[in-house]
Amino acid sequence: MLRRILAQHRRQKASSSELPRQEAAQPISLSLSSNLQENLETIKTLLGNSHDLLTRSFFIGNTQHSCAVVCIDGLANSAMVHEQILANIQLMISTAEKTVPDDPEEILSLLFEEVLSVIEIKKESDFQSMLDCVLSGDTALLIDGTNQVIVIDSKGWATRAVEEPAAEGLVRGPRDGFTESIRDNTVRIRRRVKDYHLRFDGSIVGERSKTDLVVAYIDNIVDKELLDEVKRRLATIDIDEVEESGFIEQWIEDDFLSPFPQIHSTERPDKVAASLFQGRIAILLDGTPVVLILPVTFGLFLHSPEDYYERWIVGTLARLLRYIASFLAVFSPSFYIALVTFHPGLIPSDLAFSIAATRDGVPFPAFLEAILMVTTMELLQEAGLRLPKPLGQTVGIVGGLVIGDAAVSAGIVSPVMVIVVALTAIASFAIPSYQLAIAFRMIRFFAMFTAAVFGVYGVILSFIVIMIHLSNLTSIGYPYLSPFAPQMPRDWKDLILRAPITFLRKRPKALHTQDETRMRTGDQS
Prior knowledge:
- The protein is 46% helix and 11% strand.
- By secondary structure, it is of the alpha+beta class.
- It folds into 3 domains: 24-152, no CATH class; 182-296, no CATH class; 308-479, no CATH class.
- The strands form 3 sheets. The protein has a 5-stranded antiparallel β-sheet.
- β4 and β5 form a beta hairpin.
């Protein structure tokens, strides 16, 4: 059944770009009229005479040539519209030595070439292109007697102040994060990557939302085949709205049935910049601070930018702890179930007697006991995320203490089970990637089930199944377990261990970068 679902999913993605759109999503094919009033009426009709639609008609200088500006209240910068467009036209033309021409086409050329002192300015001749710009925050200048319109960049909506990402805090490192403005986000990257080979390729996704999307990469580093594949997958996106980068991630990932994330997401500009220098690609979407990084490997989700900001021995220790935490987060409850239910002889005698004494009177087998406590822990974590931040932290800590103590006092669970679940929760919090932590939360239940059926052999079986799945998983066609499978010993020095900076002279081999060398001094190794 899963094979049929996969085959159907691949056929849909392959043919999505060829599917005809519904009639409601057909583009507007109307051309502009040379009559100003007709154009204004058409704009009001197309936008439904919307309350936030602003229009202002006026005469150019002391002449009788009428024109109008059209913009959206809140999206366009009203001060700029007044100072750079309205006032500029009136003042510069009225004080100009040359007279205003009689031909509307010549007036349009005069305004376009000499009067409007704006960097981003262009001409359009159809309602579709003009309204797409107006709905993105630009201002349209229409002149009576011509079927062309001048579109002026006047974007100026309110944006959130730059803050440190709450989910990716560091002890040492930059404190800024991405915002919901795609232009602010490209600026954050430009500040860190002052390389003229840095490219921002823009496009629009969403038939109705028309969301701005940017693909960022360093042109003389990135693998061209990777870049072409990413752009090909993005071109297949055929959906009405794209509200968040998660839409993009789910559309272009390799295996939608896998619980493991195949594209990394972050709100940290320093992490994106470091990824670009390695030869990866970043995808930015307007309206969200979450930027996608691809391709990725399993090890990348256990890395933190702080690993490189501290000395190598500190970074290595932190990574080792994260790998240990990953194992504990997945297999701690399953080992408890297996040992208590099937293999108590593997437990030291004193500890086995102690565990047996604490379980005296517990009405549930170890599997149900673990399911009950792990599910309660998941509910507390989810409640802590959805509640306001100060209240959420209180619920997570106090709720865990109160429920655990009450469950032990009532004889529902044993104290050892509470300790195991607490260890599992702490290990989950040590994982730097929330995406990977979510995957581990799902896999944990699978490991618990196999442990309840087969004991320790079930735990080993679940580990083997997970490793087989990871070895077959890819991220945009690149091996997920690289550099272990396939083996690339050169990259091992920056995987579980973090070698000194002077040893990291090459970019990851798995990325097939055009320029493999990142450090050109000293011996090349």
